[in-house]
Description:
five-stranded parallel sheet; alpha/beta; 40% helix; Metal_Hydrolase; single chain; Amidohydrolase family protein; hydrolase; 452 residues; Amidohydro-rel
Amino acid sequence: MKYLTIFCLFFGFSSFSQVKKYDLAIKNAKIFNVKTGIVGPAQVILVKNGIIADIIKNTNSFAALKTIDAQGKLVTPSFIDAHIHPTDVFGDYDKAPEYLVKDSLHIYRQRLTDAYLPYGITTVMIMGQPEKWQTPLLQWSINPLPNHINIYTAGAAIISKEDRPTYIGHVVVDSPLAAKKKIEAYYQLGIRHIKLYWRLRDPEFKIAFKTADSLGMRVYGHIDQNVMTMDQTLDIGLKNYEHLVTIAYSVIKEKKDWDAFNTEFTEHYREVKTQSDILKMFLEMFRYIDEHKKTETNILIDKLASQNATFSTSINILAELFQSGSPGDAVSLVRQQARTKQNFETFMKYVKQMQEKGIKLRIGTDMANGGKSLQGEQLLLFKSGFSISSILQICTINGAQALGIDSKVGIIKKGRQADLLIWHRSPFNSANNLLSDRIIIKDGIVYQRTID
Length: 452
Protein backbone atom coordinates (compact mmCIF):
# COMPACT_ATOMS: atom_id res chain seq x y z
CA MET A 1 0.00 0.00 0.00
CA LYS A 2 2.90 2.36 0.85
CA TYR A 3 4.50 1.87 -2.58
CA LEU A 4 1.12 2.24 -4.31
CA THR A 5 0.56 5.60 -2.58
CA ILE A 6 4.01 6.85 -3.60
CA PHE A 7 3.38 5.70 -7.16
CA CYS A 8 0.04 7.50 -7.31
CA LEU A 9 1.53 10.71 -5.90
CA PHE A 10 4.40 10.58 -8.40
CA PHE A 11 2.04 9.90 -11.27
CA GLY A 12 -0.23 12.74 -10.18
CA PHE A 13 2.63 15.28 -9.97
CA SER A 14 4.00 14.13 -13.34
CA SER A 15 0.62 14.60 -15.01
CA PHE A 16 0.21 18.06 -13.50
CA SER A 17 3.67 19.11 -14.64
CA GLN A 18 2.72 18.24 -18.20
CA VAL A 19 -0.20 20.72 -18.21
CA LYS A 20 0.94 23.74 -20.21
CA LYS A 21 0.72 27.03 -18.37
CA TYR A 22 -0.16 29.85 -20.75
CA ASP A 23 0.32 33.55 -20.14
CA LEU A 24 -3.26 34.39 -21.08
CA ALA A 25 -6.46 32.51 -21.76
CA ILE A 26 -9.59 34.11 -23.22
CA LYS A 27 -12.53 31.77 -22.70
CA ASN A 28 -16.10 32.00 -24.00
CA ALA A 29 -14.76 33.97 -26.97
CA LYS A 30 -16.87 34.16 -30.13
CA ILE A 31 -14.15 34.55 -32.74
CA PHE A 32 -14.63 36.44 -36.00
CA ASN A 33 -13.16 34.44 -38.88
CA VAL A 34 -11.70 37.02 -41.27
CA LYS A 35 -11.51 34.50 -44.09
CA THR A 36 -15.18 33.46 -44.02
CA GLY A 37 -16.66 36.59 -42.46
CA ILE A 38 -18.51 34.43 -39.94
CA VAL A 39 -18.57 34.59 -36.12
CA GLY A 40 -17.97 31.13 -34.68
CA PRO A 41 -19.13 29.41 -31.47
CA ALA A 42 -17.50 30.13 -28.13
CA GLN A 43 -13.87 28.96 -27.91
CA VAL A 44 -10.77 29.46 -25.78
CA ILE A 45 -7.79 31.45 -27.11
CA LEU A 46 -4.52 30.47 -25.42
CA VAL A 47 -1.58 32.87 -25.55
CA LYS A 48 2.09 32.29 -24.77
CA ASN A 49 4.91 34.83 -25.23
CA GLY A 50 2.64 37.18 -27.15
CA ILE A 51 1.65 34.52 -29.69
CA ILE A 52 -1.60 32.61 -30.06
CA ALA A 53 -0.42 29.16 -28.93
CA ASP A 54 -3.72 27.35 -29.49
CA ILE A 55 -7.45 27.76 -29.98
CA ILE A 56 -9.49 25.01 -28.33
CA LYS A 57 -13.09 24.07 -27.66
CA ASN A 58 -14.68 26.00 -24.85
CA THR A 59 -13.53 24.36 -21.61
CA ASN A 60 -11.95 25.09 -18.25
CA SER A 61 -9.25 22.45 -18.77
CA PHE A 62 -6.29 24.77 -19.15
CA ALA A 63 -3.78 26.51 -16.93
CA ALA A 64 -3.02 30.21 -17.47
CA LEU A 65 -1.48 33.00 -15.44
CA LYS A 66 -4.38 35.27 -16.42
CA THR A 67 -7.84 34.35 -17.66
CA ILE A 68 -10.38 36.66 -19.28
CA ASP A 69 -13.95 35.47 -19.52
CA ALA A 70 -15.27 37.03 -22.73
CA GLN A 71 -18.78 35.93 -21.71
CA GLY A 72 -19.77 35.15 -25.28
CA LYS A 73 -18.63 38.52 -26.60
CA LEU A 74 -17.21 39.08 -30.09
CA VAL A 75 -13.42 38.79 -30.45
CA THR A 76 -11.74 40.10 -33.61
CA PRO A 77 -8.20 40.76 -34.72
CA SER A 78 -7.02 44.26 -33.88
CA PHE A 79 -6.93 46.85 -36.65
CA ILE A 80 -4.27 47.77 -39.21
CA ASP A 81 -3.97 51.29 -40.61
CA ALA A 82 -2.17 50.78 -43.90
CA HIS A 83 -1.45 54.44 -44.71
CA ILE A 84 -0.29 56.93 -42.10
CA HIS A 85 2.25 59.77 -41.88
CA PRO A 86 3.97 60.60 -38.58
CA THR A 87 4.11 64.22 -39.77
CA ASP A 88 0.38 64.31 -39.02
CA VAL A 89 1.15 63.47 -35.38
CA PHE A 90 4.44 65.27 -34.80
CA GLY A 91 3.39 68.44 -36.64
CA ASP A 92 2.30 69.27 -40.18
CA TYR A 93 4.77 69.93 -42.99
CA ASP A 94 5.45 73.42 -41.69
CA LYS A 95 5.72 72.59 -37.99
CA ALA A 96 7.22 69.09 -37.97
CA PRO A 97 10.71 68.87 -36.43
CA GLU A 98 13.69 68.46 -38.73
CA TYR A 99 15.05 65.66 -36.55
CA LEU A 100 13.56 63.40 -33.90
CA VAL A 101 15.85 64.37 -31.04
CA LYS A 102 17.38 61.37 -29.29
CA ASP A 103 16.45 62.51 -25.78
CA SER A 104 12.79 62.85 -26.85
CA LEU A 105 12.38 59.63 -28.84
CA HIS A 106 10.30 57.97 -26.13
CA ILE A 107 7.94 60.95 -26.20
CA TYR A 108 7.54 60.78 -29.98
CA ARG A 109 6.94 57.05 -29.87
CA GLN A 110 4.29 57.48 -27.20
CA ARG A 111 2.57 60.27 -29.16
CA LEU A 112 2.42 58.06 -32.24
CA THR A 113 1.04 55.18 -30.17
CA ASP A 114 -1.56 57.38 -28.47
CA ALA A 115 -2.98 58.40 -31.85
CA TYR A 116 -3.79 54.79 -32.77
CA LEU A 117 -3.54 52.10 -30.08
CA PRO A 118 -6.39 53.33 -27.81
CA TYR A 119 -8.72 52.80 -30.80
CA GLY A 120 -7.69 49.20 -31.38
CA ILE A 121 -5.10 49.90 -34.10
CA THR A 122 -2.02 47.85 -33.23
CA THR A 123 -0.18 47.98 -36.57
CA VAL A 124 0.50 50.94 -38.87
CA MET A 125 2.24 51.40 -42.20
CA ILE A 126 4.10 54.69 -42.72
CA MET A 127 3.71 55.67 -46.38
CA GLY A 128 6.28 58.43 -46.41
CA GLN A 129 8.23 60.34 -43.81
CA PRO A 130 11.36 62.54 -43.73
CA GLU A 131 14.50 60.50 -44.31
CA LYS A 132 16.06 62.23 -41.31
CA TRP A 133 13.51 60.38 -39.15
CA GLN A 134 14.32 57.02 -40.66
CA THR A 135 16.77 55.67 -38.09
CA PRO A 136 14.51 55.88 -35.02
CA LEU A 137 11.47 54.68 -36.98
CA LEU A 138 13.38 51.61 -38.15
CA GLN A 139 14.56 50.98 -34.59
CA TRP A 140 10.98 51.10 -33.35
CA SER A 141 10.03 48.73 -36.16
CA ILE A 142 12.59 46.06 -35.28
CA ASN A 143 12.05 46.46 -31.52
CA PRO A 144 8.27 46.20 -31.00
CA LEU A 145 6.81 46.66 -27.52
CA PRO A 146 3.46 45.43 -26.15
CA ASN A 147 2.41 48.92 -25.07
CA HIS A 148 3.27 50.51 -28.43
CA ILE A 149 2.00 50.06 -31.98
CA ASN A 150 3.80 47.89 -34.52
CA ILE A 151 5.44 50.11 -37.14
CA TYR A 152 6.35 49.43 -40.75
CA THR A 153 7.78 52.10 -43.03
CA ALA A 154 8.23 52.64 -46.75
CA GLY A 155 10.86 55.32 -46.21
CA ALA A 156 10.31 58.62 -47.99
CA ALA A 157 7.90 58.77 -50.93
CA ILE A 158 9.98 58.70 -54.13
CA ILE A 159 9.60 61.43 -56.78
CA SER A 160 11.48 62.60 -59.86
CA LYS A 161 13.51 65.80 -59.99
CA GLU A 162 11.46 68.84 -60.94
CA ASP A 163 11.24 72.60 -60.53
CA ARG A 164 8.91 72.82 -57.55
CA PRO A 165 9.25 72.58 -53.77
CA THR A 166 9.89 69.17 -52.25
CA TYR A 167 7.86 68.14 -49.20
CA ILE A 168 9.81 66.87 -46.21
CA GLY A 169 8.32 63.38 -46.64
CA HIS A 170 9.58 63.01 -50.22
CA VAL A 171 12.94 62.03 -51.65
CA VAL A 172 14.13 63.05 -55.13
CA VAL A 173 15.79 60.74 -57.66
CA ASP A 174 17.17 62.57 -60.70
CA SER A 175 17.65 59.57 -63.02
CA PRO A 176 16.71 55.90 -63.46
CA LEU A 177 20.10 54.94 -62.02
CA ALA A 178 19.49 57.10 -58.96
CA ALA A 179 16.08 55.44 -58.52
CA LYS A 180 17.70 52.00 -58.65
CA LYS A 181 20.33 52.97 -56.09
CA LYS A 182 17.74 54.49 -53.75
CA ILE A 183 15.69 51.29 -53.74
CA GLU A 184 18.81 49.19 -53.12
CA ALA A 185 19.89 51.52 -50.29
CA TYR A 186 16.47 51.22 -48.65
CA TYR A 187 16.66 47.45 -48.93
CA GLN A 188 20.05 47.42 -47.21
CA LEU A 189 18.55 49.44 -44.35
CA GLY A 190 15.94 46.74 -43.85
CA ILE A 191 13.01 48.51 -45.53
CA ARG A 192 10.73 46.07 -47.34
CA HIS A 193 7.99 48.42 -48.58
CA ILE A 194 8.34 51.23 -51.13
CA LYS A 195 6.01 54.09 -52.08
CA LEU A 196 6.20 55.58 -55.55
CA TYR A 197 4.54 59.00 -55.60
CA TRP A 198 2.70 60.53 -58.54
CA ARG A 199 5.58 62.95 -59.14
CA LEU A 200 7.74 60.02 -60.28
CA ARG A 201 8.00 59.92 -64.06
CA ASP A 202 7.97 56.88 -66.33
CA PRO A 203 11.75 56.16 -66.65
CA GLU A 204 12.37 56.35 -62.89
CA PHE A 205 9.09 54.60 -62.08
CA LYS A 206 9.86 51.56 -64.21
CA ILE A 207 13.35 50.97 -62.85
CA ALA A 208 12.24 51.66 -59.24
CA PHE A 209 9.44 49.12 -59.55
CA LYS A 210 11.61 46.54 -61.31
CA THR A 211 14.40 46.85 -58.72
CA ALA A 212 12.06 46.64 -55.73
CA ASP A 213 10.14 43.73 -57.24
CA SER A 214 13.36 41.80 -57.94
CA LEU A 215 14.32 42.22 -54.26
CA GLY A 216 10.94 40.93 -53.08
CA MET A 217 9.86 44.33 -51.76
CA ARG A 218 6.21 45.44 -51.69
CA VAL A 219 5.52 48.42 -53.95
CA TYR A 220 2.71 50.96 -53.50
CA GLY A 221 1.78 53.72 -55.91
CA HIS A 222 -0.03 57.01 -55.46
CA ILE A 223 -1.01 57.59 -59.09
CA ASP A 224 -2.69 60.82 -60.21
CA GLN A 225 -2.17 64.15 -62.00
CA ASN A 226 -1.69 62.19 -65.27
CA VAL A 227 2.08 61.88 -64.82
CA MET A 228 1.43 58.13 -64.97
CA THR A 229 -1.95 56.42 -65.36
CA MET A 230 -3.19 53.32 -63.63
CA ASP A 231 -3.34 51.55 -66.97
CA GLN A 232 0.37 52.17 -67.46
CA THR A 233 1.31 51.12 -63.96
CA LEU A 234 -0.83 47.97 -64.11
CA ASP A 235 1.04 46.99 -67.26
CA ILE A 236 4.33 47.54 -65.41
CA GLY A 237 3.12 45.22 -62.63
CA LEU A 238 1.90 47.54 -59.85
CA LYS A 239 -0.98 46.09 -57.82
CA ASN A 240 -1.16 48.18 -54.64
CA TYR A 241 -2.62 51.69 -54.95
CA GLU A 242 -3.02 54.55 -52.51
CA HIS A 243 -6.35 56.39 -52.17
CA LEU A 244 -9.52 55.28 -53.89
CA VAL A 245 -10.30 58.82 -54.98
CA THR A 246 -7.33 58.90 -57.39
CA ILE A 247 -8.85 56.61 -60.03
CA ALA A 248 -10.71 59.47 -61.75
CA TYR A 249 -7.38 60.90 -62.92
CA SER A 250 -6.80 57.74 -64.94
CA VAL A 251 -10.17 58.16 -66.67
CA ILE A 252 -10.11 61.87 -67.55
CA LYS A 253 -7.16 62.07 -69.93
CA GLU A 254 -7.89 64.17 -73.01
CA LYS A 255 -7.53 67.96 -73.06
CA LYS A 256 -11.12 68.52 -74.18
CA ASP A 257 -12.35 66.60 -71.14
CA TRP A 258 -10.11 68.56 -68.80
CA ASP A 259 -11.27 71.86 -70.29
CA ALA A 260 -14.91 70.84 -69.84
CA PHE A 261 -14.29 69.62 -66.31
CA ASN A 262 -12.40 72.76 -65.23
CA THR A 263 -15.18 74.96 -66.56
CA GLU A 264 -17.75 72.93 -64.65
CA PHE A 265 -15.73 72.97 -61.44
CA THR A 266 -15.14 76.73 -61.37
CA GLU A 267 -18.85 77.36 -62.03
CA HIS A 268 -19.74 75.64 -58.77
CA TYR A 269 -16.67 76.30 -56.63
CA ARG A 270 -13.69 78.58 -57.16
CA GLU A 271 -10.20 78.28 -58.55
CA VAL A 272 -8.13 75.70 -56.71
CA LYS A 273 -6.09 77.42 -54.02
CA THR A 274 -6.14 75.20 -50.93
CA GLN A 275 -5.88 71.53 -49.99
CA SER A 276 -9.62 71.56 -49.35
CA ASP A 277 -10.21 72.83 -52.90
CA ILE A 278 -8.09 69.98 -54.30
CA LEU A 279 -10.14 67.39 -52.44
CA LYS A 280 -13.40 68.94 -53.63
CA MET A 281 -12.01 68.81 -57.15
CA PHE A 282 -11.26 65.08 -56.73
CA LEU A 283 -14.88 64.46 -55.76
CA GLU A 284 -16.24 66.67 -58.55
CA MET A 285 -14.28 64.49 -60.96
CA PHE A 286 -16.47 61.54 -59.95
CA ARG A 287 -19.58 63.48 -60.93
CA TYR A 288 -17.93 64.17 -64.28
CA ILE A 289 -16.90 60.57 -65.01
CA ASP A 290 -20.31 59.32 -63.86
CA GLU A 291 -22.01 61.64 -66.34
CA HIS A 292 -19.53 61.49 -69.23
CA LYS A 293 -17.04 58.63 -68.77
CA LYS A 294 -18.96 55.80 -67.17
CA THR A 295 -17.90 53.20 -69.74
CA GLU A 296 -14.21 54.08 -69.44
CA THR A 297 -14.48 54.01 -65.63
CA ASN A 298 -16.04 50.56 -65.67
CA ILE A 299 -13.33 49.28 -68.01
CA LEU A 300 -10.60 50.55 -65.67
CA ILE A 301 -12.30 49.02 -62.62
CA ASP A 302 -12.58 45.68 -64.42
CA LYS A 303 -8.88 45.82 -65.34
CA LEU A 304 -7.90 46.63 -61.75
CA ALA A 305 -10.03 43.76 -60.48
CA SER A 306 -8.64 41.29 -63.03
CA GLN A 307 -5.10 42.06 -61.86
CA ASN A 308 -5.95 41.74 -58.14
CA ALA A 309 -5.40 45.39 -57.32
CA THR A 310 -5.70 46.71 -53.77
CA PHE A 311 -6.49 50.24 -52.59
CA SER A 312 -6.11 52.15 -49.36
CA THR A 313 -9.35 53.93 -48.47
CA SER A 314 -8.64 57.46 -47.17
CA ILE A 315 -12.32 58.46 -47.27
CA ASN A 316 -12.89 60.20 -43.95
CA ILE A 317 -10.82 63.19 -45.01
CA LEU A 318 -13.21 63.60 -47.96
CA ALA A 319 -16.34 63.40 -45.82
CA GLU A 320 -15.02 66.20 -43.62
CA LEU A 321 -15.45 68.53 -46.59
CA PHE A 322 -19.21 68.63 -45.90
CA GLN A 323 -18.50 70.58 -42.75
CA SER A 324 -16.59 73.42 -44.39
CA GLY A 325 -16.74 75.44 -47.55
CA SER A 326 -14.93 78.07 -49.55
CA PRO A 327 -15.14 81.67 -48.39
CA GLY A 328 -18.22 83.41 -49.72
CA ASP A 329 -21.84 84.16 -48.98
CA ALA A 330 -23.95 81.74 -46.92
CA VAL A 331 -26.15 80.65 -49.82
CA SER A 332 -23.12 79.77 -51.93
CA LEU A 333 -21.58 77.86 -49.01
CA VAL A 334 -24.69 75.73 -48.44
CA ARG A 335 -24.92 75.01 -52.17
CA GLN A 336 -21.28 73.94 -52.31
CA GLN A 337 -21.63 71.65 -49.30
CA ALA A 338 -24.71 70.01 -50.80
CA ARG A 339 -22.94 69.45 -54.11
CA THR A 340 -19.83 68.09 -52.39
CA LYS A 341 -21.96 65.64 -50.41
CA GLN A 342 -23.66 64.47 -53.62
CA ASN A 343 -20.25 64.03 -55.23
CA PHE A 344 -19.08 62.00 -52.24
CA GLU A 345 -22.08 59.72 -52.57
CA THR A 346 -21.27 59.19 -56.26
CA PHE A 347 -17.68 58.42 -55.31
CA MET A 348 -18.79 55.89 -52.69
CA LYS A 349 -21.05 54.23 -55.27
CA TYR A 350 -17.93 53.46 -57.30
CA VAL A 351 -16.07 52.36 -54.17
CA LYS A 352 -18.80 49.82 -53.49
CA GLN A 353 -18.64 48.69 -57.12
CA MET A 354 -14.88 48.17 -56.83
CA GLN A 355 -15.33 46.03 -53.72
CA GLU A 356 -18.06 43.97 -55.38
CA LYS A 357 -15.77 43.38 -58.38
CA GLY A 358 -13.17 41.87 -56.05
CA ILE A 359 -10.76 44.77 -55.55
CA LYS A 360 -9.36 44.47 -52.01
CA LEU A 361 -9.75 47.60 -49.90
CA ARG A 362 -7.59 48.30 -46.85
CA ILE A 363 -8.04 51.03 -44.29
CA GLY A 364 -5.58 53.86 -44.82
CA THR A 365 -6.64 56.98 -42.95
CA ASP A 366 -3.87 59.34 -44.17
CA MET A 367 -4.73 62.08 -41.70
CA ALA A 368 -4.27 63.32 -38.16
CA ASN A 369 -6.32 61.76 -35.37
CA GLY A 370 -5.84 58.38 -37.04
CA GLY A 371 -7.86 56.39 -34.53
CA LYS A 372 -10.92 58.63 -34.72
CA SER A 373 -10.51 58.80 -38.49
CA LEU A 374 -10.57 54.99 -38.73
CA GLN A 375 -13.84 54.91 -36.81
CA GLY A 376 -15.20 57.53 -39.19
CA GLU A 377 -14.18 55.42 -42.18
CA GLN A 378 -15.89 52.36 -40.72
CA LEU A 379 -19.19 54.22 -40.32
CA LEU A 380 -18.93 55.77 -43.79
CA LEU A 381 -18.40 52.33 -45.32
CA PHE A 382 -21.44 51.00 -43.46
CA LYS A 383 -23.62 53.91 -44.62
CA SER A 384 -22.49 53.16 -48.19
CA GLY A 385 -23.75 49.58 -48.06
CA PHE A 386 -20.76 47.64 -46.75
CA SER A 387 -21.55 44.79 -44.34
CA ILE A 388 -19.99 44.67 -40.88
CA SER A 389 -18.10 41.52 -41.91
CA SER A 390 -16.54 43.25 -44.91
CA ILE A 391 -15.67 46.34 -42.85
CA LEU A 392 -13.85 44.20 -40.28
CA GLN A 393 -12.01 42.41 -43.11
CA ILE A 394 -10.98 45.76 -44.62
CA CYS A 395 -9.58 46.79 -41.22
CA THR A 396 -7.70 43.53 -40.57
CA ILE A 397 -6.80 40.79 -43.05
CA ASN A 398 -6.99 42.92 -46.21
CA GLY A 399 -4.37 45.31 -44.88
CA ALA A 400 -2.21 42.47 -43.57
CA GLN A 401 -2.24 40.72 -46.96
CA ALA A 402 -1.50 43.90 -48.93
CA LEU A 403 1.43 44.65 -46.61
CA GLY A 404 2.66 41.04 -46.76
CA ILE A 405 2.42 40.60 -42.98
CA ASP A 406 -0.56 38.22 -42.79
CA SER A 407 1.74 35.49 -41.45
CA LYS A 408 2.00 37.67 -38.32
CA VAL A 409 -1.17 39.71 -37.88
CA GLY A 410 -4.66 40.29 -39.23
CA ILE A 411 -6.21 36.94 -38.32
CA ILE A 412 -6.97 34.98 -35.13
CA LYS A 413 -5.04 31.79 -35.73
CA LYS A 414 -2.47 29.61 -34.02
CA GLY A 415 1.01 31.05 -34.50
CA ARG A 416 -0.15 34.65 -35.08
CA GLN A 417 0.48 37.60 -32.77
CA ALA A 418 -2.06 37.92 -30.00
CA ASP A 419 -3.30 41.33 -31.15
CA LEU A 420 -7.00 41.13 -30.34
CA LEU A 421 -10.14 43.13 -29.58
CA ILE A 422 -12.81 41.92 -27.17
CA TRP A 423 -15.92 43.97 -27.93
CA HIS A 424 -18.20 45.00 -25.07
CA ARG A 425 -20.99 45.53 -27.63
CA SER A 426 -20.93 43.80 -30.99
CA PRO A 427 -21.02 45.90 -34.18
CA PHE A 428 -23.03 43.03 -35.69
CA ASN A 429 -25.89 44.17 -33.45
CA SER A 430 -25.53 47.85 -34.36
CA ALA A 431 -23.03 49.70 -36.54
CA ASN A 432 -22.79 52.38 -33.84
CA ASN A 433 -21.07 49.77 -31.69
CA LEU A 434 -18.02 50.31 -33.90
CA LEU A 435 -17.52 53.28 -31.57
CA SER A 436 -18.04 51.24 -28.40
CA ASP A 437 -15.48 50.32 -25.77
CA ARG A 438 -13.42 47.20 -26.20
CA ILE A 439 -10.59 45.40 -24.45
CA ILE A 440 -7.43 45.87 -26.49
CA ILE A 441 -4.81 43.14 -26.34
CA LYS A 442 -1.39 43.82 -27.87
CA ASP A 443 1.20 41.03 -27.94
CA GLY A 444 -0.90 39.10 -25.44
CA ILE A 445 -0.98 41.94 -22.92
CA VAL A 446 -4.15 43.82 -22.02
CA TYR A 447 -4.04 47.51 -22.92
CA GLN A 448 -6.92 49.61 -21.64
CA ARG A 449 -7.17 53.35 -21.96
CA THR A 450 -10.08 55.75 -21.98
CA ILE A 451 -10.69 57.31 -25.40
CA ASP A 452 -11.28 61.07 -25.36
